[in-house]
Design a protein that fits this description.
The structure holds two protein chains of two kinds. By secondary structure, chain A is mainly alpha-helical. Chain A contains two helices and no strands. Helix content of chain A is about 75%, strand content about 0%.
Chain lengths: ~40, ~475
């Protein structure tokens, strides 16, 4: 596995990262909910 | 009126105190005893250590928050706990005056955090050794100053060897050291001196990306990627060398001495080193009614509080028994004593342990910081509320049932910073429920790097400080 130039482009492409920011927040909140959260 | 005492005001203790204060109101008495009168947002110290965040941005006074929540605050370090029935109290030493303070309790939460055991590795640490640390705010500030001196040397053209990782064969918190390493790399690149520095990751992990949790597996671009290959790719891209399976045994002015899995010993030269020490329990005395030592009933040899886990299992057995991990964090001998955060004794390591042919145990200890600490603090507080109001506990959350999200900063800039976002469920692999190689839910597991992570890390700093200040809506922000 290596970090390619294509990977670096997407990691810094702000519009895509804004999308990922929203998705990651939702995923983390879903994961917390998925946990027992007793 | 029931008296609840919380010792410690870190992620676990402060979370427990806030839930206790909000649920018990002024009908009962909640008191926090802590040797620090400030709350510290520890995750941001990786930025303090490279001079990118002012130290005062990571701390705030606790007393005004406790006053608002009806919680009493005693600024004292706990020295003695007298746990025997009928005569249960804590003795503390008041900050400044050093006068003894006595607090009686019906329920006690021990959330003292770790003692940073620099003495466990001769020559380690900023106070009586040669290495740096980011494990306390004064240490992070001192680290920043040493780091900036190193930068000046590099600007003058001097080559510098920077070693970051763990400073004891049984250390934990590899994640914090990893973040610091990546922030140093990014800072050196920005300052145009990266070519003058040799960066080395020196760690007691079995493999890169182990982080004391047996690593992580997640889907990326349709294939399963493990954290070892992921972190290796990041290190290769950033020109960072690594040496894992290595326990640091001592340090002098020029070299870090170590032993590896094969039992080989050696020394690594350094100009600047930030190494995480071993964590042990705080040195509190446990005294019975007759004045005798009852610590064996409360803590293990390392000083961590024994709770409702199953202790003494071999790693192979523990690995197959996620239920051996504690669920209510209640001491079996003194059921009104609970432990939260780093203070509780885990039943064993999550990562596979290793003992060298010389008898040195090199094993990454299980991390119990951040999200895990906060969750345990909440569980403990809600159970105490249950016991007071209903007479029975209804909250249970083992580390083998708990989700954890970690955001490892790789530069704090919102424009060109980055971070690795990792989500694992559960923290302790459960091979019975998730019979995959990793023992975790692959639909939840996540490992991703990019600018979005840097934004999340930045957002978490402000969101958590909001939560820990008990500002409106704090309870809906997950731990």
């Amino acid at each position: 596995m290596e970090v390619t130039q294509k990977d670096k482009f997407w990691m810094n492409f702000k519009i895509y990262q804004l999308w990922r920011f929203i998705v990651l927040n939702i995923k983390i909140l879903k994961a917390v909910d998925h946990s027992k959260r007793s | 009126m029931t008296k609840v005492v919380v010792i410690g005001s870190g992620f676990a203790g402060h979370t427990a105190a806030m839930y206790l204060g909000s649920k018990l109101g002024r009908e009962h008495q909640v008191t926090v005893m802590s040797n620090r009168d400030m709350f510290s947002y520890i995750p941001s110290w990786v930025w303090v250590g490279v001079g990118h965040m002012k130290p005062e941005k990571t701390v705030f006074k606790l007393k005004p928050i406790y006053d608002r929540m009806g919680i009493e605050f005693v600024h004292a370090a706990a020295r003695e706990i007298h746990p025997d029935a009928g005569d249960q109290f804590v003795i503390g030493e008041e900050a400044g005056t050093k006068k003894p303070v006595r607090l009686e309790y019906d329920y006690l939460v021990i959330a003292t955090g770790p003692k940073l055991n620099f003495a466990g590795t001769p020559g380690l640490g900023p106070d009586s050794g040669y290495t740096n640390s980011i494990c306390s705010l004064p240490h992070a500030v001192k680290t920043r100053d040493s780091y900036l001196e190193v930068i000046e040397k590099m600007k003058r053209g001097e080559k510098q060897r920077i070693v970051i990782g763990t400073g004891h064969p049984g250390a934990t918190c590899q994640g914090a050291a990893f973040e610091y390493l990546e922030n140093v790399h990014k800072d050196l690149v920005k300052k145009g001196v990266r070519d003058k520095a040799e960066l080395l990751w020196l760690s007691n992990e079995r493999a890169l990306g182990d982080f004391g949790v047996r690593g992580l597996q997640a889907r990326q671009k349709g294939r399963l990627v493990n954290s070892a290959e992921f972190i290796e790719a990041v290190f290769k891209d950033h020109g960072i060398k690594w040496q894992v399976q290595t326990g640091v045994t001592s340090v002098d002015q020029k070299k870090i001495y170590w032993e590896n899995y094969e039992g080989e010993t050696g020394g690594t030269e350094y100009d600047f080193a930030m190494l995480i020490p071993q964590f042990t329990g705080q040195p509190v005395k446990y005294i019975g009614r007759d004045g005798g030592d009852v610590s064996e009933k409360v803590v293990n040899k390392a000083g961590f509080v024994l709770v409702d886990g199953i202790y003494g299992l071999s790693y192979d057995v523990l690995e197959r028994n996620p239920d051996a991990w504690p669920s209510a964090y209640q001491n079996p001998n003194y059921p009104n004593i609970f432990a939260a955060g780093i203070a509780f004794a885990p039943p064993g390591p999550i990562s596979k342990p290793h003992t060298t042919r010389n008898g040195t145990a090199i094993t990454a200890a299980p991390p119990r910081t951040g999200m895990v600490s906060g969750v345990i603090g909440r569980v403990v507080a809600l159970n105490i509320v249950d016991l007071i109001k209903r007479g029975r506990m209804t909250h249970h959350e083992r580390m083998s049932e708990m989700v954890a999200a970690c955001i490892a900063s790789m530069g704090d800039s919102l424009w060109d910073g980055s971070a690795v976002v990792m989500v694992m469920y559960p923290v302790v692999p459960d091979v019975k429920r998730f019979p995959t190689e990793s023992g975790r839910d692959l639909f939840v597991s996540l490992m991703e790097m990019g600018a979005a992570g840097a934004w999340m890390k930045f957002m978490l700093h402000y969101t958590f400080i909001w939560k820990f200040k008990g500002l409106p809506g704090w309870k809906i922000i997950p731990e």
